[in-house]
């Protein structure tokens, strides 16, 4: 990441649903920048991200005629991969995002668009309670966390899952505890030197509140919340080749 990209990453750090609406319409930005990523974190890398998503949600390509929901698809190559998999398998896909993001995605008979944010738009999904086979929510949850309590979001999304295997991947969740563990390692110190361009050790910041950030407590509370609601849930690692695998992880949920 060069200095300009580090500046962008700082500017993108505090995005909100409303902030993304403004980015979505910016003709001067790349499609990766419009979803809040410097190019180096996404250009040429979304194929590998999709490979990980389909490995974690095998029904997407193993079965036909499913109902799929993407919460916060954005407008880069990743939703294109997901939409193509749905077309190939005869699935219906429902895309929930802002009108500005949705306008950048294709229209087709198997694609339904619902203007978000989720779960405020849940009434438009009411007929889908217990009817959704696959939910993808990738690189979105930290913006929901910044906007308000998470359990309402999780409860509403879980309510859509079909009994007998309906699965949801809440992917690419930043975890401040994981980042601290990494920064305290030799690999983390080398990464920090490379990232900052400075010859100094990182300060991991153990035993401090994770103000404004998701951490182990938040992720594990989501696992506990899901399990208490009768939905199996696991925290999963990302493959090391993904751009932020050293500080982000995924939540996989499946309704028995
Ligand atoms: C970082 S982008 C990720 C886009 C895509 N999932 C990906 O990983 O390439 C976050 C997306 O989530 C959307 N978003 C943020 N909060 C949302 C919410 N509560 N409901 C639906 N979409 C939301 C934003 O508009 C944006 O398109």
From TrEMBL:
This is Class I SAM-dependent methyltransferase. Its EC number is 2.1.-.-. Gene3D superfamilies: Vaccinia Virus protein VP39. It is an enzyme of class 2 (transferase). GO terms for biological process: methylation. GO terms for molecular function: methyltransferase activity. It comes from Sediminicoccus rosea. Keywords: Methyltransferase, Transferase.
């Amino acid at each position: 990441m060069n200095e300009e990209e580090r500046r962008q990453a700082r500017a993108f750090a505090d995005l909100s649903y409303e902030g993304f609406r403004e980015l979505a319409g910016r003709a001067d930005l790349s499609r990766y920048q419009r979803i809040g990523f410097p190019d180096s974190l996404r250009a040429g890398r979304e194929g590998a991200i999709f490979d990980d998503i389909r490995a974690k949600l095998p029904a997407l390509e193993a079965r036909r005629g499913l109902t799929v929901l993407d919460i916060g698809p954005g407008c880069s190559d990743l939703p294109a991969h997901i939409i193509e998999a749905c077309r190939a398998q005869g699935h219906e896909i429902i895309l929930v995002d802002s009108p500005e993001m949705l306008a950048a995605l294709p229209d087709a008979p198997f694609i339904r668009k619902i203007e978000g944010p989720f779960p405020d738009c849940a009434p438009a999904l009411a007929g889908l309670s217990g009817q959704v086979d696959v939910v993808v929510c990738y690189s979105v949850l930290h913006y929901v966390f910044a906007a308000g309590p998470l359990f309402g979001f999780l409860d509403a999304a879980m309510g859509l899952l079909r009994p007998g295997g309906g699965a949801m991947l809440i992917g690419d969740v930043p975890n401040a505890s994981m980042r601290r563990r990494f920064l305290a390692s030799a690999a983390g110190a080398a990464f920090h030197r490379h990232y900052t361009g400075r010859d100094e050790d990182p300060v991991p910041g153990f035993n401090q509140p994770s103000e404004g950030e998701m951490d182990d407590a938040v992720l594990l509370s989501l696992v506990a919340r899901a399990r208490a609601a009768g939905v199996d849930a696991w925290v999963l690692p990302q493959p090391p080749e993904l751009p932020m695998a050293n500080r982000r992880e995924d939540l996989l949920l499946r309704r028995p």
